[in-house]
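Journal club prep — side note

Before the paper discussion, L.F. wants everyone to see what a predicted structure for a comparable chain looks like in token form. Sequence:
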Amino acid sequence: MGQGIQQPPVEQGGAGSAFLDVFKVLFDPAAVFERVRARPRFLVPFLAIIAVQCVLFFVNLPYLEVAVKAQMATAAQGRPAPGTGMLVAFGLIGLIIVLALLMAVSGLILWVLTSVLGGGGEAKYTTLLSVAVYAAVPSVILLSLVGSIVLHMQGTSGLTSPQDMQPALGLDLLMPGAKGFMGAVLKAINPFSIWGLVLTAIGVTTTQRTSKNTGYTVATISFVIGLLIAGVFGAMGAGR
């Protein structure tokens, strides 16, 4: 009976810690992923990421309008730029869809790699989806925050397209003129994405009880696949 009485507080705390773990994963990832191992949780951290991204979207909206107008002026002469309402509607919807697909695909890649390389253990997609969401915090939240600060410091003078709204914070600093596939790959290699790689390795190692070598192998392969995907989208954007 005594043990049964203590069950409800654990359940209540579990729901609350899922949000707090979005921040705790940055400095205590092993404890966060131990909780994920016991109980996969991806919806709450995903909603936290969406909330931060929506706030930053509105903070950066004036810059987005300038970037879109500049792109329209060079790519389609005489074609009017979309209004603010349309930009907000399509921007927010696109943001949510892209982030949802990004997390789903990242979780799928981790699940496949862990199933193949994890030593025969039974990998669960929901657990690895949770790992993918928490491991994305440095890139999706911290990088976005830092990028927004740099963007506001630089102003709108250098904006020629929405792609210019992410300042150079990674290897793209070494090749400022790089565009397309190479530009996207270099931009995706930055301190925050490397941080995410480390969190992914810790997450896989902790939740799947694999060796550190296996965890880092899975995380590195997943990272490289992500770079290739970013490069393909970068090449598609440059070809427009």
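L.F.'s comment for the group: Confidence is low (pLDDT under 50) at residues 1-16. Keep this in mind when we get to the figures.
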